[in-house]
């Protein structure tokens, strides 16, 4: 198991937090781009996609922003992918059907909802624009980037898992790095095996009190997490015991800050436990 630097994990989670700050129908304005610059990266492009469809709310035709591509002064390409409130609706669907992996060269099956969103990820709101993987490939081919890191929270964690493997198998960067936070299981044991064989630097961070990383269940379908889990354990009596609070990226940032000895991040005010509401 690779050792983890919690400050580095926080760095990439902060990029995902910037992606999360842009509303699904919003755009990357100058203030958001300035935040990316302050984090040490130059904004390149917005990542768009079709929102996660659920039985409760099909989101038919919804095109939303999912994140961004950026590059550092050291030519590190980063794809930061946000989560979605629809993940809580997805939890209630309880179908978790499988479809063949969308990644050329990867075996196994992946969750159908995540797969549909992944196949829609593109650089531009219109259908037919360059796919996220192909945009990364283009930057690599022109020398604008030499290595790739993909990071994501929640649904974004599942999408980051798919994109990381796609980059490894289908671009010139054969050893991308990935940091995911609160990612659900993305595919079956065969897909996980394909991922683990191709991606040596995978940091999958999960709050042990968060429901989302425990889904889809391993039965009746053979879902399996990819490597490698780094577990966060909320201290007693400090975090409100609710599905949203345990899943929020701000909670993850606070928990990682505790491990890194940093007080830079705080819990959302409505997720601070009271005497009657604690884990």
What does this protein look like?
By secondary structure, the protein is α/β, with parallel strands linked by helices. The chain has helices spanning 6-21, 30-38, 86-93, 112-120, 132-141, 155-170, 189-198, 243-247, 249-260; strands at 41-50, 63-72, 76-81, 98-100, 109-111, 147-153, 177-181, 187-188, 201-207, 223-224, 229-232. Helix 6 links the parallel strand 6 and strand 7. Helix 1 packs antiparallel against helix 9, helix 4 crosses helix 6 and helix 5 packs across helix 6 (155-170). The longest helix has 16 residues, at 6-21. The protein is globular and about 55 Å long.
Distinctive features:
279 residues, seven-stranded mixed sheet, two-stranded antiparallel ribbon, 21% strand, alpha/beta
Helix content: 25-40%
Number of helices: 9
Computed structural class = alpha/beta
Main sheet overview:
7 strands, mixed
Fraction of residues in β-strands:
15-25%
Query: What series of H and E elements makes up the topology?
Result: HHEEEHEEHHEHEEHEEEHH
**Global Rg:** 18 Å
What is the end-to-end distance?
A: 29 Å
Going across the major beta sheet, what is the strand order? 1-2-3-6-7-9-11
Unreliable residue stretches: none
Mean pLDDT level = 93
Shape: globular
What is the number of strand segments? 11
């Amino acid at each position: 198991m690779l050792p983890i630097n919690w400050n580095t994990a926080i760095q990439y989670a902060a990029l995902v937090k910037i992606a999360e700050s842009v509303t699904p129908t919003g755009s990357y304005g100058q203030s958001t781009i300035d935040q990316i610059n302050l984090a040490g990266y130059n904004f390149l492009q917005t990542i768009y996609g079709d929102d996660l469809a659920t039985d409760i709310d099909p989101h038919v035709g919804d095109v939303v922003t999912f994140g961004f591509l950026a590059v550092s002064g050291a030519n590190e390409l980063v794809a930061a992918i946000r989560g979605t409130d629809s993940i809580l609706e997805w939890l209630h669907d309880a179908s978790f059907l499988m479809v063949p992996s969308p990644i050329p060269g990867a075996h196994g099956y992946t969750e159908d909802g995540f797969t549909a969103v992944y196949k829609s990820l593109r650089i531009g709101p219109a259908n037919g624009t360059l796919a996220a993987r192909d945009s990364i490939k283009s930057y690599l081919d022109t020398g604008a980037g030499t290595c790739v890191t993909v990071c994501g929270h929640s649904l974004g964690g599942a999408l980051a898992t798919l994109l990381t493997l796609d980059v490894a198998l289908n671009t010139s960067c054969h050893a991308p790095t990935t940091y995911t936070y609160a990612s659900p299981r993305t595919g079956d044991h065969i897909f996980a095996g394909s991922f683990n064989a191709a991606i040596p630097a995978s940091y999958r961070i999960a709050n042990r009190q968060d429901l989302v990383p425990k889904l889809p269940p391993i039965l009746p379908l053979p879902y399996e997490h990819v490597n490698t889990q780094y577990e966060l354990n909320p201290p007693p009596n400090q975090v409100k015991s609710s599905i949203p609070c345990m899943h929020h990226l701000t909670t993850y940032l606070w928990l990682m800050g505790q491990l890194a000895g940093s007080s830079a991040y705080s819990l959302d005010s409505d997720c601070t436990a009271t005497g009657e509401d604690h884990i």
